[in-house]
């Protein structure tokens, strides 16, 4: 392994990092306490819903690495990048790579569905609706599956590009350049 090179650059804003960790906390608490502690589960769901709502607004109006326009790529670009990953020739991104960008969208969308269906289930008009319960549980399991893929990809790309991506979501900084592992 060779040493890291380059200066540190700001990659993730304080708001992006706060929203990320609030979303993580909301999802983890909602999963861990579920129906046994309904009040805590609901509160965690509202935290996750608020984080998703603000993140979507930031993605639509924000600039830099926060804006969706900076990381949501066309399907052809995503497929091209996936092929580069499989060949071990992918480019490193300071922000989200094309696959990571769509992971953000998928996680936000599934979390939004889980939160909204959970909220609807608290209303008298929807109480006891089997289809709503199935949709809520399905979205929650989708979030869990996507989160596992996301964490695995973060670990893989951290190893691949010799950088700690999880630490960058804490500090907000990444190296401007790093060497990656060759094929």
From TrEMBL:
<feature type="transmembrane region" description="Helical">
    <location>
        <begin position="99"/>
        <end position="121"/>
    </location>
</feature>
<keyword id="KW-0812">Transmembrane</keyword>
<dbReference type="InterPro" id="IPR011577">
    <property type="entry name" value="Cyt_b561_bac/Ni-Hgenase"/>
</dbReference>
<feature type="domain" description="Cytochrome b561 bacterial/Ni-hydrogenase">
    <location>
        <begin position="12"/>
        <end position="172"/>
    </location>
</feature>
<feature type="transmembrane region" description="Helical">
    <location>
        <begin position="44"/>
        <end position="63"/>
    </location>
</feature>
<keyword id="KW-0472">Membrane</keyword>
<dbReference type="InterPro" id="IPR016174">
    <property type="entry name" value="Di-haem_cyt_TM"/>
</dbReference>
<protein>
    <submittedName>
        <fullName>Cytochrome b/b6 domain-containing protein</fullName>
    </submittedName>
</protein>
<keyword id="KW-1003">Cell membrane</keyword>
<feature type="transmembrane region" description="Helical">
    <location>
        <begin position="141"/>
        <end position="159"/>
    </location>
</feature>
<keyword id="KW-1133">Transmembrane helix</keyword>
<dbReference type="Pfam" id="PF01292">
    <property type="entry name" value="Ni_hydr_CYTB"/>
</dbReference>
<dbReference type="InterPro" id="IPR051542">
    <property type="entry name" value="Hydrogenase_cytochrome"/>
</dbReference>
């Amino acid at each position: 392994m060779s040493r890291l090179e380059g200066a540190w650059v700001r990659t993730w804003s304080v708001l992006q990092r706060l929203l990320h960790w609030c979303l993580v906390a909301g999802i983890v608490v909602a999963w861990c306490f579920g129906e046994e502690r309904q009040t805590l589960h609901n509160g965690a769901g509202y935290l996750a819903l608020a984080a998703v709502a603000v993140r979507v607004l930031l993605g639509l109006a924000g600039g830099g690495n926060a804006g969706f326009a900076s990381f949501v790529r066309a399907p052809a670009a995503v497929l091209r990048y996936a092929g580069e990953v499989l060949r071990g020739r992918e480019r490193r991104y300071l922000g989200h790579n094309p696959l990571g960008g769509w992971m953000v969208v998928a996680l936000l969308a599934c979390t939004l569905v889980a939160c909204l269906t959970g909220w609807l289930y608290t209303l008298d008009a929807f109480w006891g609706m089997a289809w709503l319960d199935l949709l809520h549980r399905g979205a929650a399991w989708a979030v869990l599956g996507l989160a596992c893929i996301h964490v695995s990809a973060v670990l893989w790309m951290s190893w691949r590009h010799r950088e700690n991506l999880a630490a960058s979501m804490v500090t907000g900084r990444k190296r401007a350049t790093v060497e990656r592992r060759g094929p």
